[in-house]
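Good morning N.,

You mentioned wanting to compare the apo and holo forms, so I went ahead and generated the holo version with iron/sulfur cluster. This is what I fed in:
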Amino acid sequence: MQPFTQHRGLVVPLDRSNVDTDAIIPKQFLKAITRTGYGPFLFDAWRYDDAGGFPGQDCSIRPLNMDFVLNQPRYQGGSVLLARENFGCGSSREHAAWALVDAGFRVIIAESFGEIFHGNAVKNGLLPITLDGETVDALFRACETHPGYTLEVDLSGQQVVPPVGGSVVFEVEPDVRDRLLHGLDDIGLTLEHSDSIRAFEHRRAERFPWLYR
Amino acid sequence: MGRTLYDKLWDTHVVRENPDGTVLLYIDRHLIHEVTSPQAFDGLRAANRLPWRLDSILAVPDHNVPTINRERILDPVSRNQLEALDTNVTAYGLDHFPLHDRRQGIVHIIGPEQGFTQPGITIVCGDSHTATHGALAALGFGIGTSDVEHVLATQTLVMRKSRNFRITVDGQLSPGVTAKDVILAIIGRIGTAGATGYTVEYAGEAIRTLSIEGRMTLCNMSIEAGARAGLVAVDEKTIDYLRGRPYSPSGADWEQAVRYWTTLVSDRDAVFDRELTLHADEIAPQVSWGTSPEMVVPVNERVPDPATEVDPVRRQSMEQALRYMDLTPGTAVTDIPLDKVFIGSCTNARIEDLRDAAAIVRGRHVSPVIRQALVVPGSGLVRAQAESEGLDRVFRDAGFEWREPGCSMCLGMNPDQLGPGERCASTSNRNFEGRQGAGGRTHLASPAMVAAAAVHGHFVDVRQFGNNV
Ligand code: SF4
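and this is what came out, ligand included:
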């Protein structure tokens, strides 16, 4: 996983609550068996002015919905996504995180997140930051009034720093922070405890033999 | 201090507590389907790792599968994904129910049906509706593909404990009101993020009165309230349900298992971080009007007016939803015209759901305004049971299509989809934009409500659907 320490990027304001994983990456793209290549299909139904794309399609020839924020010239190259409550609610599809990363996003700021999405994001080096409604509101206003509005995100200092100063501190769980900062391989770490797992399993098999064949 | 059911399930699975406050949680059982597993197996291979415990895994294709003409899968991308599952199942020698097996079906239907899901276990799947399995007092939750790989490789997950939330439904449900209406009413009340960070235990007389299948419907949609897991405590019904199932313990093991299972209830003095109580007699049949499962109203009410919403963010999402759904505020729910109906999904495609729907449909006909009426049983065994009861005839005679099992139009990864602008009454669980097909519009409701809507071409209050309506 790509480590995350600091990032400065253009903010893309997606002014919606309950952005679900079906909206982030529609079902037809879940048929692929890779971890990459989902970027062009991110927010497919909102982004393109057609009846929906299909896997492997060349998106450069599809009509764009210019009302959608991701298509507006001022937000090209954005890497910090701003949204409202409950971003990433819905399914467990990690494709949602893969698509965001593939499209160049490194940070999502929202009032709250769907729990499974939150975990998936962290596992892909995409930092989900939870801020209160008032702060999120202020960020939306700042994006609106300042073209080219960027934010600097410092994970070790747990701060979001706007261009004019006045940093905002955010909470992050210590395990999430460590994993992102060091780009840790979860499985490798867990396997260091193989003996404990095996011992636990042994005790469990004695107590609940019907669960083991 | 007493422990909740969730506390007990959690405690018995902690392998190790990490210094950062997470724990290594042991996973007993792992359900696998074709969509969220190929990248996990690839990861395993790339790192030269093997699955930790093969007998913990059961695989089944369900999301992509066609529900007619199963011999030839026309979509090459779907076919490729289904073949990837076959390849992995063969490579590692996993237990699986292939497409032509009569036990094949939606992953959350076959787990309980086979007795693979049992009280007291942890069970995961790369699918958010794994919450379903909590109906049998199993701790079940959905995981992403990286975690699928983690469970394959280590039989554990790194997790943080959720908080305890008890939702009590007192009293008796009125006739015509089902588990689906209860969970939709709960989501309508607490919102789609209302239970985020919690494991929900459903309790109270109305829940105890529900069948195990009804409890599955209830727990299934916990994720739509933001909770990763939903639970119902063990009682006689749980034990009766599990007796004699293929993966259930037998002989001396059975006695021992039952003794353990009966302890899987919250202690009387257990403290929940949050409590909510609803009264069953206040719950009417529900219909969703918007693009989030919290946007629901009782069938005898009207589509709400955003103008009456004070919160600007809420108001904006209501307006967006109404635009997408092409609905005008103040429209009576029973006046919403429909194009299609779908009876299926892991929420409502078990035998009792089909019986409920068939009871409404029997001797009647699908309204001529309905372009397609689909019944997609949750598994091959559900389908066979329904056929032995003659339910397939009831549906077919009424003008429904009787299909082979799979996820089907719940998410339309197979050819069963809504066209742009089409409006569907659906027994599934998500009414997100485009969920059942790009541009399609979904109204969630119970099987009986959807069946009645099929007959009339619009929603009707199933409580008034006497023999002569
Ligand atoms: S039936 Fe629908 S919700 Fe259930 S597993 Fe299949 S796609 Fe997911």
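Residues 21 and 160 of chain B are 7 Å apart (CA to CA).

Happy to go through it together on a call whenever suits you.

Best,
F.
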